[in-house]
Amino acid sequence: MHNRRNFLIGTSVAAAALGLAACGGEGAGSGGPDPDAAPSDQTVGVAMPTETYERWVADGANIKKGLEDKGYKVDMQYAQDDIPTQQQQIDQMINSGVAALLIASIDGASLSAQLDNAASQGIPVVAYDRLLTDSENVDFYVTFDNYKVGVSQANALMFGLGLLDEEFEPADDAPEGPLNVELFAGSLDDNNAHLFWKGAIDTLQPYLDDGTLVVPSKQTDIEQAATQRWEQETAQKRMETLLTTYYNSGEELSGVLAPADPLSRGIINALQNTGRGPTIEEGLPIVTGQDAEIASIKLIADGVQHSTIFKDTRELAERAIVACESMLKGEDPEANDTETYDNGVKVVPSYLLPVQMVLESNYEEILVESGYYTEEQVESGQL
Question: What residues does the Periplasmic binding protein domain cover (predicted)?
Fold first, then answer.
């Protein structure tokens, strides 16, 4: 499908079989939960990365409510993007006797000791949205199709630039270029950031190769484009530096590939502070995004941010709960991908959910009519 370092793709049939075997009801270790235990006698440990991102707050609330509605107790902890804190929180969950762990990691490779400990106690582990890497003790993975997120972000950028039409086919009246763009990536310690980047660059590469798109900074490697911890302020500072260094003589910037909404807002701040915009119609470059955060949906509705990618965290939470419940009952969770997610040690059986591109023309249909947001929330930009 697609390649990225030693984490992804190109797995053998034997490796896939190993991944499937590991998702059985015995957890990653030799013990395992008691399939006859009542939900009210079992606690699920939920480790979340941070409360500073709107989406993780929503994820946590959806997971906690869903598990409690099924009768389970929930020990949910937020680590505020501090790796040692998350390690300690998971250790405490294991020591307290949780029946299962659901982990959205800060750094997917930082929890090997905790996963080993869970395995020794027979505690099954579900990786939530971010793949847990470099460990055999990961039973299941629930996420979105993150490669397609990157593809959609790149298509949104090219649609906004006029290179693609509404069917996302080459536009008949496409500008000849060259069009100047800059590229941003997420945090390198988040496995998803590499998938977003891979999907986007694979899609943009033909246009970069033929000169239709040009990156004046020449910062086209993920290491150059990365934004540690997905921080808005870091993205804004990098955009300010790019503008000062490469666009200080009147060079036009047509678009920016941004992989997440907080980064998008930081980039937009930098652009507007240098006299671009304030809206797309008035000259603001095309800026993409992800996660459909309410502040960015208002910007899209106002013609400021061009697009975002909607990942319905209600569905992700539900799928994670189903997977946990299956393992607690001694059953195999349903997987729809048993080949893609090689975490460096094994292929982790996974369930992938679809994503949707959100534009000014469709945000009401996708987000308001579905009940994800109200019109009043979009208008105010606040929940």
Answer: 44-331
